[in-house]
Amino acid sequence: MRIFLLTVMCCLGFTLIAHSQQSDTQEKVSAIADRLIQKFKTSGPKEVFNALQTDRTAFREGKLELNDYIFKLGNGSIEPFFYHGDFYGSEKLLLELLSVSEADTTVPPAVLAELNRSMSVILVEKGDIRKALVFINKAEQQYKQASVEIPHMFYISTGNVYVNLDLTAKAREYFEESLRALQRAENPEGYRFLISYYSIANSLVIDNKNDEALEYLNKILVMGIPMMGEDNADLAQTYELMSVAYIKKRAFDKAKHYLEKTKKIYLNAFGEIHNRTAHIFGFFGEFYAAQEEYEKAHSFYLRRAAIEKELYGEKSGAIASTYQIIGDKLRKQKKYELAGTYYKNAIEAITIADFDGNIYTSDIGMYFLNSSDLAASYLESFRNSNTLKDLKLAQFQYKKVDSIIDNFRQNIHNSNDKISYSRKYHRIYFGAMESFLIEYEKTKNPLTLEKALEFSEKSRATMLRQALQESEVNKFLNLPQEVIAMEKELAIDRAYYQSGLANAKASKSKDSVEITEIQNRLFRVNRKQDSLRNTLKQQYPNYHVLKYKNKVIDLKEIQKNLKPKTTLLEYHYLKGISYVFIISKDNSFVYKLNVPNLEDDIEAFQSSILNKEIGLFKEKSHKLYQELIAPIANRLNGEELIIIPDGPLWNINFDLLLRRADVSNNPKDFSYLLRDFVIGYANSATALFATKSQERITNNGECLAFSFSGQEVTEGENMLRLSVLRNSNVDLPGTRKEISQIAKVLDGDYFYGALASEENFKMHALNYPILHLALHGEVNSEKPNDSRLFFTNTKRNIEDNYLYAHELFALNLPAELAVLSACNTGSGKIASGEGIMSLGNAFQYAGTKSLLLSKWELADGAAPELMEQFYRNLKKGVSKAKALQQAKLSYLEGASINRVNPFYWGSFYLLGDNTSIAFNTSKKPWFFILGGLILLLVCWFGYNKFKKKPN
Fold this sequence. Notes:
Layout: H1 23-39, H2 46-60, H3 66-76, H4 79-84, H5 87-103, H6 109-126, H7 129-146, H8 152-163, H9 168-184, H10 190-206, H11 210-228, H12 236-248, H13 252-270, H14 275-290, H15 294-312, H16 317-332, H17 336-349, E1 351-353, E2 359-361, H18 364-385, H19 388-408, H20 415-443, H21 446-458, H22 462-476, H23 481-506, H24 512-539, H25 541-547, H26 555-561, E3 566-574, E4 577-583, E5 588-594, H27 598-610, H28 614-628, E6 640-644, E7 678-681, H29 685-688, E8 703-707, E9 719-721, H30 722-726, H31 734-743, E10 748-751, H32 758-764, E11 770-774, E12 776-778, E13 788-790, E14 802-804, H33 805-808, E15 817-820, E16 829-831, E17 835-837, H34 839-845, E18 850-854, H35 862-875, H36 880-894, H37 902-905, E19 908-912, H38 925-948
Parallel strand pairs: 3-6, 6-7, 8-10, 8-11, 11-15, 15-18
Antiparallel strand pairs: 1-2, 3-4, 4-5, 9-10, 12-13, 13-14, 16-17, 18-19
């Protein structure tokens, strides 16, 4: 759904000094002005006609400079569209004015910038988003060239371009900057704040954050009604957007009230043939469709389409948007063939020829939506008809969408937008995968299975794969060092300001001046990053292509990487349907699982562990085994499983599933899957087996360990070698006891107290193969990038001692293993296709090969024992997952009856690379000295014996 922001474009208030007296330019500008005035002579508001007349008179009498007049006409050229819905009239006038102005070298860049910005506004409404982006980028360069403060309306216009690309998080950055631009301006008009509030609310409604949106919309009414009057046509846009928010909240009485109010105002102000009136009819369609009154809804959609055809013709983004909405509602009614026709009509409406006859797609976002929906409608049609033609059409269309995704993802840089699109990709790739699996079931053609697996892999961990890919590309493409340094510096700056903003917002005092200043700086850093990306794209095209290349591992490569007695299980889940790929060294299969109540069962399974309800645990754990493992048990080869979960399956520790309906209530006796299999987890097979040029770690020891002190510390505590701690008899609490157990096994360094700071971690973490962080963690489910680890708070420190997830993205941590034994380090919000957006996930972005994470809060008493056993096993040379399996079994065997519940020991899981760690096993110096002496003695005796031999 698209909601276009219509605003009266007015003079921005900066003084424009020009001295052009070229009669040619004046004559052309006068002619354009005359045509514009003519449009309002017989119809339209008198105040517009009078203002245009006054400006023309002032210009002819020499009281208004040419450049000031061009500037005013640039804003005035939008009026025919605004008041009459005359898009083509506005576009033609603006293009002429731009052509005349650009030909006159005395016209200042700021005036040209305003004309280009206005042009982008018109093109957004037309739906030609590609051209709109060109014009708004041109405007930005001209504002910078003019060395003037970039005006508030530029940020609004730019944000609207990104809204129409469905990049709402990036759009919101611009809308929020428009507010800050107003705060920087001297005496800004109050209505400008309303435009910013509306824009932010619009983006929030699109993201389904309706309560937040309504706060902004109510703020507009409080300010706007006294200023403009309750029945003002501009203010009616607020009522319109409120109706949409209430439809989404299913508060239909309120929605109907605001729809009727808006319709009455629009019909009185504009009549029926106007784009605003068309929009409100479309939202009446949404209103009825949400209540499944499809016939009423369809009549309103057709009414909207008829108005838009009269305004824009058949070729426009507006009409494409209406066709797409109609197609969606027809699909809900299971009228798949007719829905497909509307999707094709929508694609045709945005397929346009330029002046040279070149065919292009004017709105790539709309093209993506309709193309993917068309593919889905073909697949749904096949399920109804079982006609092979529909299946082949679906496969063909999904391949086209795949290429669109490859192209489109190059423009997505905001992490929230990436997550949003990952969700869309996941749904699309699930359909693509399913279309080939259906064919595989019929034909058993191995090529179709391989194609299905390819789409499954493409739906997974796209953000992680891109981060790993970017790291590799930077190493091998020989980019100039200054470019790499600039990228790194901007990433660090961005992380710094994001941390500062999170801290400022979390502070009890909430200093609004400080928050605004940090937001200003963060916005500028983001724009510098955008500028650098554009430069790299133009000057280093190979870098850009390789960085965004969406190549995934194939079946043969997976099998090549698998060990002989290992099985990889790649699950794919969407709304009650689940498939699992079963891949071993020599075989590959796929199985469709019956999981009707999976999400409820997993939630009950989690609850049973946290609440220590043994009966419920036995029931749900065995049921999940029956649904997820038992149907494929005879396909599992060997003793090791690599599990790639999807969706809610990330919330299961599979080693806790019970193979039998156990009679005993003693957890020691349960038939855990743990007893039969070594289990590790991965985000995707591509990420797991990606070739990495592992950086050489400057080895200061085997392990770097940190423990947290909850109190502010200034002095008195220091760093210890783990070997020193190993020989200590001091009774240590909590996390320090955990570290002391590790010290019995590993060498390295331990930071605690005052030195367990974020600054020291960043300084030293690069130098150790194992990082062990016994720290407190805080998961932010709403904003995963603001999840954080707590280091010791010290007065003498340049860092804030919160290590945020977004900071890890800018770090380089090429460790073999990071153990995050803090609370819930492996839990968090599940993003479709991306897995758990946890603190652990962020360490992967920083280059850490594998992670030991926890799903729930750990019991202090169990963690030290588990960790000691884990590291002892690891030191013996076994794989990381096997070391964890044996540690859990050892704990279970020796624990007292009141500490054997899975709650105490089942939280940990291993994510990522599962190979063993090559520890430094070199002998002690005395061994070499003794060996050398023995060798010398042997040589001496040999030499003397040789001398005594007769010639």
